Structure prediction request, 146 residues.
Amino acid sequence: MTKTVHILNGPNLNLLGQRQPEIYGHETLADVETACAAVAAERGLAVKLLQSNWEGQIVDWIHAARQEAAGIIINPGALTHTSVAVLDALNAFEGPVLEVHVSNVHRRESFRQHSYVSLRAEGVIAGFGVEGYALAMRRMATLVGA
Ligand code: CA2
Prediction:
């Protein structure tokens, strides 16, 4: 059966490509989905990309992934730095988790340099722009044995 990777995006990431291109670039989440679907097709995977501005929705999607997904790629947005709830939900997920940040959080404000999600993630990509998602898809394919 085809394995599915869920790509979850947190608050404000619906604005990708519309604001602050000097930090987040010109590409949109729709472009991210296209790039990740291409990698998924190469590796025989399916992909589902979701975005919400609501913490509880992200938690619910992580719970749903326990039944539906072989792995999770997550850009939690600002929840990265604040949300024990997202970390707890990820800890209840059995498959691999990869964390992606479009910007290089390490050369930004100090509050962006701590990530709760990194306590759970197998790997982290930051500062590769939206290309980071497709790179994470390649790594995820390896991790789920595709
Ligand atoms: O670099 C990333 O991907 C972040 O996860 C993005 C979050 C930020 O809070 C994290 O520290 C790092 C913010 C997402 C905001 O996305 C926007 C995109 C375009 C325009 C405005 C906001």
In short: The chain has one domain: 3-143. The radius of gyration is 14 Å. The chain has five helices and five strands.
